[in-house]
């Protein structure tokens, strides 16, 4: 037909995607998320380019260049039949250089070499293919569209979509008319480039230009619809295919089976669709005369087995397998799929029958026995070449059965005798199989070292398995050794794999996977469990530095361990790290949720820290007071006195710092509890008020009391709690606060013991409330609490602080009242010599 060529520059330039009516989910538009492996070529292109100069093809070419000689048609035919791309090209080059034989070269000869070159692994030999085409242009036979199609296919396989488009545009410049194979290749190119919309648009252009599609065209469209989850579009293309009279082939049937398996609304719908598909388009046996039906092969039955397995139709899967294994093209993949289906069924039944142990064991033994039988049958079938995938699946089944020793024998003996290499994934499975068995950590270490010796790529999963096994065995030293070695890889070579990829000149790069969150968690939990706090602290620091957040339980366990070890400074730092990390990741609400979930642990820490701080402070004061009495100090020799004073001066700052650290940590934890809307107990509030009082943060002490009363308004506080707030207000020295607490004691009838009455009477005397003071003394005695010298002294000292106009009269009247009713108290006043030691030290 006389019309413009379809593959013009306008047609093949990238079409903006997505088209609104055909847009697909954003996550599927990412090449890294493709499901059929096409986009991996893009991702691995740099690595494959490095391997380009080292593959078997180039090695064969390097050896063959020196052996160029006479034209050898027989050698060429043998090389083509053996799919030896290097030898085929070298023999063809000899023929092309021969003056007489070159005339015998046909386009088919050239095409056979180009096809082989396009399928060289790991990458197609684009440069050599261009050389072949250039050499063909020098022959009487000119290059044709099939040659360009082979080059287009090679660009697609390589993932160089820009070059493929450029080649398609250049076809018209070479006076080559695209054929249907060209169009199909270009359709597939769009699918590989993750652009279904462009593929659909190009297909519509084909139809508009009267290009009749074939079964390959529709197979490409159906592949795209499957890949990008477009079931309705897939259905429309299949219906269009049938309406145009295009007969489906085996690939079409396989893709339809996958479509029905993924997109059926229910199991019944799936079974009905599969049954209709088989009855309508698949011939039941090879003797069928219906030419519209597809002859079933092992690939179709493999797809059926997999689909039935996904829908838990195990009997139907077995039936499809039985039909598939008698097909001439039966291969190891059919056996691998049925083994996987049986194993998945065993796992699901295990979960369903987890309460019935006997039934669970029976199902497990039955499925395992069937798997062993199938694997043995596959091994004994001479026409089946058992590959590493089949072995890997059976090894996985053996490991699930809890027999890593047999699994390892399979990999070392059975695979070794067949020349099948053991993959890193299989070694990983063996490690995990040994790791779950007690006392087999040595085997885990052995396999790990084998992987290192064989220079296998060791993943974070492998390291985690090893670390978990060592942690379960409480072998902290060996765990530390492997952990440090892992980290050392990146400290010595900070750029890791990326740096090597940029600078490698031989095509081999060192590969390391960095530790993930699980890695740090395993090591941290192990060190905490073994109470190796310095190492645990280092792990937390490094973990935070690389952006991983330890679990809350690990944080809390580490804090408790430090508190038990009396390392309160480290405990405070850990808590600060947790607060910062959680707030940064989850915000304030996230921090509140974590604290609320562990409120009991936090509260115990508050009480323990503050009480230990108070205990240390009291002990220090008592020892200082005891050693500083005149009798103790004067009885010591002059040299000992000087040493004592020096020791006291040296230790005092450290002791004071320790007391302050404990107190501050306890108070900060209390604040976090309140901020998280938790409700600490009354004892915790009393402890915190005491801590604020000793820290001279009296306003915060009063706030703690108010928080307590707001949380428990109807509860009668304990005398110890009332004592704490009274002592705080006494030290505050503020008239309004004193008035408020005095009124509260009277109105709420708060319980007072001897200590509480002492503080209460001190407040009344301090502010000159004479009548209330006298009444309170009488109430105290009536409550059965004796008036002591200490209380009288508190009253007297408080009256001295009162600065009102009636201070003298008030003092005299109160003391006269006490002397009149308790004369013995006034006669003893001043006899207490507790302050003599302090006066003596002040004089020194």
Report on the structure:
The protein is about 70% helix and about 0% strand. It is built from 44 helices and no strands. α22 (about 405-415) packs antiparallel against α23 (about 425-435), α30 runs antiparallel to α31 (about 570-595) and α35 (about 680-695) packs antiparallel against α36 (about 700-710). InterPro entries: PPR/CCM1_RNA-binding, PPR_rpt, TPR-like_helical_dom_sf. Keywords: Coiled coil, Repeat. Pfam families: PPR_2.
Strand percentage: under 5%
Average pLDDT score: 79
**Which oligomeric form is depicted?**
single chain
Specify Rg, calculated over alpha carbons. 43 Å
- CATH class of the domain at 1-210 reads Mainly Alpha
Helix content: over 70%
Cα separation of the termini: 120 Å
CATH topology of the domain at 1-210: Serine Threonine Protein Phosphatase 5, Tetratricopeptide repeat
Uncertain ranges: 1-53, 492-510, 830-844
Counting helices, strands and paired strands, the structural category is mainly alpha
CATH architecture of the domain at 1-210: Alpha Horseshoe
The main sheet comes to: none
Shape: elongated
Q: What is the total tally of β strands?
A: 0
Tally of helical runs: 44
């Amino acid at each position: 037909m006389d019309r413009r060529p379809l593959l013009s520059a306008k047609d093949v330039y990238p079409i903006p995607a997505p088209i609104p009516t055909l847009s697909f989910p954003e996550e599927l538009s990412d090449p890294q998320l493709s499901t059929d492996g096409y986009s991996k070529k893009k991702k691995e292109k740099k690595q494959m380019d490095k391997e380009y100069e080292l593959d078997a093809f180039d090695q064969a070419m390097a050896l063959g260049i020196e052996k160029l000689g006479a034209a050898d048609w027989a050698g060429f035919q043998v090389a083509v039949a053996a799919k030896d791309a290097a030898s085929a090209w070298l023999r063809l080059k000899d023929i092309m250089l021969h003056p007489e034989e070159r005339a015998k070269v046909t386009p088919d000869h050239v095409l056979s070499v180009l096809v082989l070159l396009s399928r060289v692994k790991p990458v197609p030999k684009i440069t050599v293919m261009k050389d072949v085409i250039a050499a063909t242009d020098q022959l009487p036979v000119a290059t044709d569209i099939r040659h360009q199609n082979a080059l287009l296919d090679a660009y697609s396989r390589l993932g160089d979509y820009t070059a493929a488009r450029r080649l398609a545009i250049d076809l018209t410049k070479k006076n080559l008319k695209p054929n249907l194979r060209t169009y199909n290749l270009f359709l597939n190119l769009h699918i590989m480039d993750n652009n279904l919309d462009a593929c659909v648009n190009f297909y519509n252009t084909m139809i508009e230009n009267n290009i009749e599609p074939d079964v390959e065209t529709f197979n490409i469209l159906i592949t795209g619809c499957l890949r990008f989850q477009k079931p309705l579009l897939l259905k429309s293309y299949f219906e269009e295919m049938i309406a145009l009279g295009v007969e489906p082939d085996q690939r079409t049937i396989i893709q339809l089976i996958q479509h029905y398996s993924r997109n059926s609304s229910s199991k019944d719908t799936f079974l009905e669709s599969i049954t209709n598909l088989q009855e309508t388009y698949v011939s039941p046996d090879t003797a069928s005369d219906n030419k519209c039906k597809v002859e079933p092969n092992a690939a179709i039955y493999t797809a059926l087995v997999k689909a039935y397995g996904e829908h838990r139709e195990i009997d139907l899967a077995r039936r499809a397998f039985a039909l598939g294994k008698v097909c001439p093209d039966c291969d190891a993949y059919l056996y691998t799929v049925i083994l996987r289906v049986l194993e998945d069924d065993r796992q699901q039944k295990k979960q369903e029958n987890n309460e019935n142990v006997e039934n669970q064991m029976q199902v497990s033994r039955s499925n395992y026995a069937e798997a062993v039988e199938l694997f043995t049958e596959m091994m004994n079938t001479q026409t089946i070449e058992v590959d590493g995938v089949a072995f890997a699946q059976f090894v996985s089944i053996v490991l699930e059965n809890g027999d890593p020793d047999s699994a390892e024998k399979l990999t070392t003996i059975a695979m070794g005798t067949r020349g099948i290499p053991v993959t890193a994934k299989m070694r990983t499975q063996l490690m995990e199989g040994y790791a779950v068995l007690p006392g087999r950590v040595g085997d885990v270490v052995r396999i790990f070292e084998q992987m290192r010796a064989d220079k296998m790529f060791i993943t974070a999963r492998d390291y985690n398995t090893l670390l978990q096994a060592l942690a379960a065995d409480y072998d902290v030293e060996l765990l530390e050794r492997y952990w440090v070695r892992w980290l050392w890889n990146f400290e010595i070579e900070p750029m890791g794999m990326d740096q090597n990829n940029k600078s490698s000149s031989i095509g081999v790069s060192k590969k390391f996977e960095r530790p993930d969150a699980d890695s740090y968690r395993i090591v941290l939990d192990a060190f905490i469990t073994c109470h190796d706090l310095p190492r645990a602290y280092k792990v937390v620091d490094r973990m935070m530095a690389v952006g991983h957040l330890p679990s809350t339980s690990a944080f809390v366990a580490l804090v408790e361990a430090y508190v038990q070890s009396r390392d309160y400074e480290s405990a405070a730092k850990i808590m600060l790290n947790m607060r910062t990390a959680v707030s940064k990741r989850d915000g304030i609400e996230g921090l509140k949720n974590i604290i609320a979930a562990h409120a009991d642990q936090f509260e115990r820490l508050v009480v323990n820290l503050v009480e230990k701080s108070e205990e240390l402070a009291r002990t220090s004061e008592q020892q200082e007071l005891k050693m500083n009495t005149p009798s103790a100090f004067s009885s010591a020799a002059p040299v000992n006195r000087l040493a004592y004073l020096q020791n006291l001066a040296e230790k005092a700052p450290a002791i004071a710092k320790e007391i302050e650290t404990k107190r501050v940590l306890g108070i900060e934890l209390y604040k976090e509890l309140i901020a998280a809307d938790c409700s600490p107990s009354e004892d915790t509030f009393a402890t915190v008020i005491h801590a604020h009082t000793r820290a001279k943060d009296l306003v915060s002490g009063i706030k703690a009391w108010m928080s307590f009363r707001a949380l428990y308004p109807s509860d009668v506080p304990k005398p110890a709690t009332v004592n704490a707030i009274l002592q705080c207000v006494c030290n505050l020295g503020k008239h309004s606060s004193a008035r408020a607490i005095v009124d509260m004691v009277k109105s709420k009838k708060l319980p007072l013991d001897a200590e509480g009455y002492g503080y209460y009477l001190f407040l009344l005397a301090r502010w000159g409330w004479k009548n209330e003071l006298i009444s309170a003394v009488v109430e105290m005695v009536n409550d059965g609490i004796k008036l002591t010298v200490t209380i009288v002294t508190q009253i007297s000292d408080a009256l001295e602080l009162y600065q009102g106009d009636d201070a003298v009269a008030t003092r005299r009247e109160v003391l006269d009242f006490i002397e009149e009713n308790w004369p013995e108290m006034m006669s003893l006043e001043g006899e207490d010599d507790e302050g003599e030691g302090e006066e003596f030290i002040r004089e020194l």
